[in-house]
Amino acid sequence: MKMTVDFEECLKDSPRFRAALEEVEGDVAELELKLDKLVKLCIAMIDTGKAFCVANKQFMNGIRDLAQYSSNDAVVETSLTKFSDSLQEMINFHTILFDQTQRSIKAQLQNFVKEDLRKFKDAKKQFEKVSEEKENALVKNAQVQRNKQHEVEEATNILTATRKCFRHIALDYVLQINVLQSKRRSEILKSMLSFMYAHLAFFHQGYDLFSELGPYMKDLGAQLDRLVVDAAKEKREMEQKHSTIQQKDFSSDDSKLEYNVDAANGIVMEGYLFKRASNAFKTWNRRWFSIQNNQLVYQKKFKDNPTVVVEDLRLCTVKHCEDIERRFCFEVVSPTKSCMLQADSEKLRQAWIKAVQTSIATAYREKGDESEKLDKKSSPSTGSLDSGNESKEKLLKGESALQRVQCIPGNASCCDCGLADPRWASINLGITLCIECSGIHRSLGVHFSKVRSLTLDTWEPELLKLMCELGNDVINQVYEAKVEKMGIKKPQPGQRQEKEAYIRAKYVERKFVDKYSISSSPSEQEKKIASKSCEEKRLSISKLGPGDQVRASAQSSVKSNDSGIQQSSDDGRESLPSTVSANSLYEPEGERHGSSVFLDSKHFNPGLQLYRASYEKNLPKMAEALAHGADVNWANSEENKATPLIQAVLGGSLVTCEFLLQNGANVNQRDIQGRGPLHHATVLGHTGQVCLFLKRGANQHATDEEGKDPLSIAVEAANADIVTLLRLARMNEEMRESEGLYGQPGDETYQDIFRDFSQMASNNPEKLNRFQQDSQKF
């Protein structure tokens, strides 16, 4: 090496040695500056490269967004997706290159500067210190007088020791210099070679990637040439069509007719009309009108939902209007309102009047044909009202929640301590409580008891029905079944600690539940009756068409339970409509309930007990199953993984659904076919249940295995009420999302409509059944 220092010169400490040291030290100092500068430039290069990768990734994401936007063009979408994937690979290669650069240049050279150069500096400091000490010893030894023997010996000894130390330190220093001079070459070359190999790998990877992409790019170039030729051809054709249309005569009224008869879309006629507003100013606004599905509707913009002017053209008339100043006016009159419209010409007015009259005649013909068919297929009522329950319903209407709930047997006193006139309730248990016991119930947590005031809180109709279905006597027969056998006395009012212990043992630990009271299996007689009933259903249903099968099985399920006892309909249960056009989604219930789960099971677990009771609309049995530890979301693997909530839907009881939801049932849990409770309620036309599930947060965007969501099912079934509810809920959801009102219930109109449906489903379910039938007729 050029700067190597000789060990012999080190021992002599000659001027040549000192000059060599000075030159080496200057060279090392300059080397440190150069390496520091190179490391800083490497760091800047890596940071800039990472920023480039970030920007490149954003650009690549932009290409992917453009590819997704072009999903209707397969060529563009495929090409952009393939290009973005290749760019992503190049970004990955860049990232690997920068990581290798950081390891080879930054980390390796920094380590050389911090470790090897630091050792050199430490050795230099020690050498300079001992060199100075040697010079001082030489001076002191020279100044000692010969007659002072003691001082001469002392100076001689110090000089000897100092020289020895100097030689040792100087040799180490020279060794450190020679090692550094030798190592600097290998460290610098090794780091740079690693850096260059990283570049070599980067460019090889890029070459290989684009070599594979090359044939595709070549084919795409050929397609692009053809696309250019086709685009030029299409341009010439459009220019020719433009020239032809320009030469037409637009002076006649015939050219202004903007209607189109399209039977496939159900649009009889459409076009612009002026509509007179119903406000005090009687302003006229130009809107796009259309006659479709026996309705007259209009919209301001294409994306707006159509506004219905006349819901049923069979109930309206149309006439000329010559008694106002504006020309070409006509009026569409319905039993509830009239709509004044103006066409652009007399010919167009006559066309609209004729279209309305034709639609009215067509609607009457279709009505007559369907009425004749329905008369031939008419079936008896799905159930009669029990006279006792009917009188009780009339008695309770208009009374407060407190009066209604306290009418139930046992509810006039607290369920847990017996205190009279309780003013609180546990809505998931269906019991009444005094204020002290209600506080203890709150401390249990809502997964055990949900407390509500009978006087201070508002009560939904379905929740009030639920409270009237259960009651203290029913629940205590389950949760206090072993109290007398165990010799335990119920706590008295005022015994706070005893109450807490008793209530926790009763509802949390369930110590007083008789674990052997639950039915382990159906009796042989019940099996025979159920089997025979199911077989008769299958024989009768197999002779009907698909729509009639669903209707027949629904009627039989409403008429009788497992014991053959007729059910009353005053609890908000909904019978099936006379027809279900979405029957392809559903198997007949007669076949479904003939499965081995109901007839052949030898040991019923609590989940299965809850599952059966949910279909039977038997709330006491359901409460008993929950007390025995039934999972409210238990899925029956033998019946498409249906849940108790789905069974409650099939059973047609709104109150049963409410009871399961209050006890933690998952409103969005779906069966093996991807259908949740909302799907089943929509298929069966149970409007009240659809309303309930939407209020409880059901996901109406979920699709089943056929890709159908509840709205598409309701539209296919022509169920106007359910379509209305689903669309309202969807609009309300979109409005809340657009306005950022997450967690808010919605506007007052939305709440009022759902409140009306809830009241009707609970108190007048027959009206919803009638609406369902009407919607299917039309």
UniProtKB/TrEMBL annotation:
Instruction: Determine if Repeat is one of this entry's keywords.
Output: yes
Q: Where are the ANK repeats?
A: 640-672, 673-705
The keyword Aminoacyl-tRNA synthetase appears for this protein: no
Its annotated function is as follows: GTPase-activating protein for the ADP ribosylation factor family.
Explain the regulation of its activity: GAP activity stimulated by phosphatidylinositol 4,5-bisphosphate (PIP2) and phosphatidic acid.
Q: What is this protein called?
A: Arf-GAP with coiled-coil, ANK repeat and PH domain-containing protein
Membrane topology is: Peripheral membrane protein
Q: Which GO terms describe its molecular function?
A: GTPase activator activity; zinc ion binding
Q: What is known of its domains?
A: PH domain binds phospholipids including phosphatidic acid, phosphatidylinositol 3-phosphate, phosphatidylinositol 3,5-bisphosphate (PIP2) and phosphatidylinositol 3,4,5-trisphosphate (PIP3). May mediate protein binding to PIP2 or PIP3 containing membranes.
Q: GO CC annotation: what is one?
A: ruffle
Source taxon at top rank: Eukaryota
Species source reads Carlito syrichta (Philippine tarsier)
* All residue ranges annotated as the Arf-GAP domain in the record: 399-520
Q: Which residues form a coiled coil?
A: 117-147, 217-248
Query: What positions does the domain PH occupy?
Result: 266-361
